[in-house]
Amino acid sequence: MSKSFVPAAPARRRRKEARPAELLAAALDLFVERGFAATRLDEVAARAGVSKGTLYLYFASKEELFKAVIRQGILPVLEEGEEMLAQHRGDAASLLQDLMRRWWDLTGNTPLGGVPKLMISEAGNFPEVARYYHENVIQRVHDLLGNVLRRGIENREFRPVNIESAIDVISAPMLMLSIWQHSMAPCSCGGMEDPETYLRTHVDLLLNGLRAKEMSE
Amino acid sequence: MSKSFVPAAPARRRRKEARPAELLAAALDLFVERGFAATRLDEVAARAGVSKGTLYLYFASKEELFKAVIRQGILPVLEEGEEMLAQHRGDAASLLQDLMRRWWDLTGNTPLGGVPKLMISEAGNFPEVARYYHENVIQRVHDLLGNVLRRGIENREFRPVNIESAIDVISAPMLMLSIWQHSMAPCSCGGMEDPETYLRTHVDLLLNGLRAKEMSE
Amino acid sequence: MSKSFVPAAPARRRRKEARPAELLAAALDLFVERGFAATRLDEVAARAGVSKGTLYLYFASKEELFKAVIRQGILPVLEEGEEMLAQHRGDAASLLQDLMRRWWDLTGNTPLGGVPKLMISEAGNFPEVARYYHENVIQRVHDLLGNVLRRGIENREFRPVNIESAIDVISAPMLMLSIWQHSMAPCSCGGMEDPETYLRTHVDLLLNGLRAKEMSE
Amino acid sequence: MSKSFVPAAPARRRRKEARPAELLAAALDLFVERGFAATRLDEVAARAGVSKGTLYLYFASKEELFKAVIRQGILPVLEEGEEMLAQHRGDAASLLQDLMRRWWDLTGNTPLGGVPKLMISEAGNFPEVARYYHENVIQRVHDLLGNVLRRGIENREFRPVNIESAIDVISAPMLMLSIWQHSMAPCSCGGMEDPETYLRTHVDLLLNGLRAKEMSE
DNA sequence: AATGAATGAGCGTTCATTCAT
DNA sequence: CATGAATGAACGCTCATTCAT
């Protein structure tokens, strides 16, 4: 279309195209902060700078908005992780460390870090969405980490452990960190004040816990 | 019957005294399952076997009911843990293991295990309650675990680690386990299907991670 | 019965017999102060020192309580007024003055003075009660005053006036006085602060207004 | 039609601007007829031809609606009265008569005539509103009548009387007339059937009562 | 006779959703 | 596309009434 001829779409147009993303960002923030039921569409619309009616031009209902919030923008990071796994040639320990670091920088430490809290809070009200999230996000992260662990065990870097449960144990502190940042932390409750130290300790304990003992007796 | 031997509180009376606990149990279940806003008082009352109006004989408002749910019955277990710490004479590793086991049996694996999920979900809407919970539960668990870690480090059982962050890292898998049981698990999502294995793996990784290397080099 | 043999009924019994009157007094106060709908039976019972259930032993419903409040204790004063008219032998002016004074002392200036305000406020919700009150109280007062006026006019003490409307005009300031005392006055609004002066002025203006001019031109 | 000449506010718009007035009119009628507590917002909305939710677009609560009802449209008439006083050059008696006549035509004999009954009925429940009404309406009427009386006394038209209490005595029959029209009268109770006669009698008695005797001994 | 726990219909208020402009 | 006025179903809470004790 002629769009390709105009180097810069008029500001109005640019806003128009950004609308859904702005609405999703506003909705994510509010859903995470207050939960689905306690969030009013009025406020979502206001925060995105549009009227309540406009919201319905882009999302058919509050529930669809919720689903869109969950679906959006999680996969890219995941894909990058899978890419990292595929291309990595070094030891499993440093790969594990890189993956966690990268996740924290790109997801945990951004608004998207609120999604796990949101999904956990609302799973009971939206079981289908929970299943969707589980299959498309959790399961894939699970497989990803599973591969890393398997690789580490295979080359004797890690002790043999129950991989399935180890994955969950390994993920838990990461999840709790992002959950905490979006629930207790904003209430001026202390705890996990320094994510960097927290992550370093987690990695330290974890790699020590996994490391094959050089022998001992 | 032997009933004639007891002064026999009238049936009405006995119900009346049990009501608050029944209502709290019903409310806990539903708040955990659906969140505060999505829980209807009608249903809480129905689940407790009374009418909506009766609820108001015992709790002044939905919010007061919520606060009572959070307050109830968390402290006893905590006190037992503090007792265990005070009386324990063996190594820190087994104390840590015992504490975690006991918590799981008495709290994590009961309806009360839903409280962390509930508190996390609603912290944004009830900051004062979150602070109350933080001070009276989280902080005390924190101190408890801190003492165990310190003791283990002092007698060279554990490596020196950053205690503050290690506490959070250690607690995270326990919390995630109980959270998961009350959010994703009931949606027939897989994951953490076997808490026993999960706990064993956690303890295994953890103690290995903490253990002072008997030598190396 | 044997009751006549016990000189003093036990206190308990005496209370029991006073119950309806105490309940009526409490109900009158509250109905006058807040209106029928805004008065809770809880409070009526509490003010009478009994439980809510007890109220239903004496009055079948809130509405019946209302009717009883209206019926109670208005007639005695009326009867005295009719008695005064029958026995009076002096001039109409002083009879009129005596009647008004007596009404104020025995009714207007007592809790019963709130009844006109109550009846006026609730007439729309209880038309049958309004009609009952009109026929049994208002109408009889009307007739009473009509007789006084007629007598005054007949013996040339008063000018001939339209008796029917004059009665209402004459009553209005009396009614307004008692209404005011039970509505605006308790809100620390000023006005009608001194009922005695108000009454004196009313009588003064009224008798002057009625008095047959000695002639003039 | 000539409609094409006006910019033509869209129909929606025109409704929107009329809504508050329509709602206030409906609320006034029902509050006067049944009292504040017994009036259901459903009915107010229905009478104004809108749904219950719409009411809340214009008034924040039932109580705010009540306050708006009391505030509305009383002052204009008052201002006219004050204007009449300022411009009047004739005798006080005719001014007094004109004021009462005008009040009856513009207020007493319109839906607004129910406001005194409403205010009296609800003063106990809304003391602040009662004070507002007292200061802004009653007090100003009081001052207005006080000036008329003073003027009449100064030019020897009226006898000297206690002005403060005379004002209340003079107002009472006017108030009672409008109160009666909105309480007992609609219950097919008799009394005050002919307001015109009633008013004439009031003026007649009043002016006779006030008039300085041209001589007498 | 007296109690007070229990009820449930009813009302004020909110908010997702619709639709005329 | 965008608006915001209007809707009405739903929910928190109240309170007159009942009834087992």
Task: Map the helices and strands.
The structure is a homotetramer of 217-residue chains.
Chain A: H1 11-34, H2 41-47, H3 52-58, H4 62-71, H5 75-87, H6 92-108, H7 115-122, H8 127-154, H9 163-181, H10 195-210
Helix pairs in contact in A: 1-2, 1-4, 2-3, 5-6, 5-8, 6-8, 8-9, 9-10
Chain B binds a DNA duplex (21 and 21 nucleotides) through helix 1 and helix 3.
**Individual helix count of chain A:** 10
Give the largest interface pair and sizes.
C-D, 66 and 66 residues
Q: Class of the largest domain in chain A, according to the CATH hierarchy? A: Mainly Alpha
Instruction: Spell the H/E element sequence of chain A.
Output: HHHHHHHHHH
Overall SS class of chain A: mainly alpha
Q: Oligomer, anyone? A: homotetramer
* CATH homology superfamily name of the largest domain in chain A: Tetracycline Repressor, domain 2
Helix content of chain A: 55-70%
Rg of chain A, Cα atoms, Å:
21 Å
- Sheet-strand content of chain A, in percent, reads under 5%
CATH-defined topology of the largest domain in chain A: Tetracycline Repressor, domain 2
In CATH terms, what is the architecture of the largest domain in chain A?
Answer: Orthogonal Bundle
Q: What number of domains of chain A?
A: 2
N-to-C span of chain A: 74 Å
The stretches of 5 or more residues of chain A where confidence is low (pLDDT under 50) are 1-9
Total beta strands of chain A:
0
Shape of chain A: elongated
